[in-house]
Amino acid sequence: MDITLLSCEKCQTAFVPPKYACPHCFNEELVQKTMSGKGTIYSYTTIYSAPEKFASQVPYHIILVDLEHGPRITARMVDGEPSIDQKVELESIEDSVYWFFKR
Q1: I need a labelling partner for 48 at 20 to 30 A (CA). Which of 9, 33, 37, 79 fits?
Q2: Rounded CA gap, 66 and 8, in Å?
Q3: Residue 85 backbone dihedrals phi, psi, to 5 degrees
Q4: Which burial class, exposed, middle or buried, applies to 89 when counting CB atoms under 10 A from its CB (0-12, 13-18, 19+)?
């Protein structure tokens, strides 16, 4: 699955919406770009004690993903145990949460 990011027209920095100005150079000329949803796990943590809304989902994994053609984003792991440098791919986006699975 591809991912839609924002890109700055001035410095070409890509980032996750919503933003109204580039976080790098503060330029307000932004364009949407569709990029690959493939990436690599940079870091992760496992949640064992969660707020009531997510208590039924524990344990679950929060991962930091370096996208192949974009920024690093925070996401949830769909299946299995994550590991550093593991290849992952975007499965879905629900309520602004990015869900990745192992490639």
Answers
A1: 37
A2: 19
A3: 70, 10
A4: middle
